[in-house]
Amino acid sequence: MGEIMFDDIPVSVGPMNEGERVRSPDMYVELAGPKSYGFELVKVVENAEDKVEVVGKDLDEMEEKGRYPFAIIVKVSGSNLEEDLEGVLERRVHEFINYIEGVMHLNQRDQIWIRVNKDSFNKGLRLKHIGYVIQRLFKAEFPFIEKCDVILITDAEKVKEELEKAREIYKKRDEKTKSIRDEDVDVFYGCVMCQSFAPTHVCIITPDRPALCGGINYLDARAAAKIDPNGPIFEVPKGELIDEKLGIYSGVNEVVREKSQGAIEEVSLHSALVNPCTSCGCFEAVVFYIPEVDGFGVVHRGFKGETPVGIPFSSLAGQCSGGKQVPGFLGVSIAYMMSPKFLQGDEGWERIVWLPKELKERVKEAIPKNLYDKIATEENVSNTDELIKFLKEKEHPCIKRIEVTETKVEEQEVTEISETEETEENKEVESIGIPTMTLPGTFAGLPPGIKIVLYNAVIKAEKIVITKEDFNKKKNK
Ligand code: SF4
């Protein structure tokens, strides 16, 4: 789709505007986002009327630099439309809004975050124009949509009221795939919608692994591939099962290799350590490895504080977004955390040591009962020392593993000191060690292309100082 100019829209509209960021100094207003609330929802209905409606203040009635609650409700009608398409159509709202000059849309569902810049506002852009663009692009892209209503809400009370209803609908959608497992189907689905900003990213969507954006589950993907076989969502034949626990399939590897232009060779569907899937940037949560305890923390997008490793969601997200495959870091959806296959290649919930309280509550029913109290939150610990203490007190399985490793290492040292011969037991010590973790090239501000590999290491440092060595000086010494 090239540039699309609508005579009655005061700014340009088209893919050339995708990827445009609206930074704080250029911002006219912010809608929804982390400091407010809102959502977007597409519903298939029988009687859409082709209307665009704004409920509440339009942009010219808002204060400059203000933050406002915001909802986008799109109702579509058409004889071939099925409810299963709602999730996939909803995901396109992100793309269509980003086509509008000076408007930035991030995330999905009840996590949306929109900014309008001053230039576009000054050119005359108003919410009703955004509504018309959404309506026209839906009808242009999907000819089976016969009528389309777009309702944009800025009235705070109304947004709040509709948000609760939308959350119920998201929950019902996610529950639909709960009874299907990866082994029950012959094909998975792939999505490359996010390649516009993460060119090597390929989402693999399976019954047990809903897309990391949280917006597309297995049934949504199946409906989308059926109705638009040449679109961004496509079938992925499973091929041969290479490793059941990690979730490695020959068919998935072939597709990932091809769609990532050869950048990614192999992916495990259910591991954050061994060839994890790539992450784009839309994920609802990040799984991150904590070497001190040989376990994982998971932090969701809405969590504002710092994780026990001393950094917030945004910095962790930066480590693995952009289509990179980074062992130890993995973008996931909350729905994937509810799957019985969640990180099964890394021992699943037995390796989860920290969650924000809110997230822990959301996924409570998926956490094995014997582990629930052993997982720390921000209320229990604020750094890794406190985390270790907490896990020891609670006898978390991760700490038991570490203690086994430490005991064996001590035994090995004693044996070496007494100059006895190496025993089979000592060999076992080496094999128990903490797994290898390759840090991303951009870690600690290093330039891309540099890889740090830590083998069986537990490293603790209060400060890392990286200085550039002057080779000329060194030579002249
Ligand atoms: S995160 Fe994945 S499934 Fe969701 S839109 Fe992007 S590529 Fe598609």
From TrEMBL:
It catalyses: Co(I)-[corrinoid Fe-S protein] + acetyl-CoA + H(+) = methyl-Co(III)-[corrinoid Fe-S protein] + CO + CoA. Residues 170-400 form the CO dehydrogenase/acetyl-CoA synthase complex beta subunit C-terminal domain. It comes from the Archaea. Its EC number is 2.3.1.169. Binds 1 [Ni-Fe-S] cluster. [Ni-Fe-S] cluster binds at C191, C194, C280, C282. Its cofactor is [Ni-Fe-S] cluster. Keywords: Acyltransferase, Iron, Iron-sulfur, Metal-binding, Nickel, Transferase. One of its GO terms (molecular function) is CO-methylating acetyl-CoA synthase activity. GO terms for biological process: acetyl-CoA metabolic process. InterPro entries: ACS_CODH_B_C (IPR045822), CO_DH/Ac-CoA_synth_bsu (IPR004461), CO_DH/Ac-CoA_synth_bsu_3_sf (IPR038571), CO_DH/Ac-CoA_synth_bsu_arc (IPR023432), Prismane-like_sf (IPR011254). HAMAP family: CdhC. Monomer. The ACDS complex is made up of alpha, epsilon, beta, gamma and delta chains with a probable stoichiometry of (alpha(2)epsilon(2))(4)-beta(8)-(gamma(1)delta(1))(8). Part of a complex that catalyzes the reversible cleavage of acetyl-CoA, allowing autotrophic growth from CO(2). The alpha-epsilon complex generates CO from CO(2), while the beta subunit (this protein) combines the CO with CoA and a methyl group to form acetyl-CoA. The methyl group, which is incorporated into acetyl-CoA, is transferred to the beta subunit by a corrinoid iron-sulfur protein (the gamma-delta complex). Belongs to the CdhC family. This is Acetyl-CoA decarbonylase/synthase complex subunit beta. The gene is cdhC.
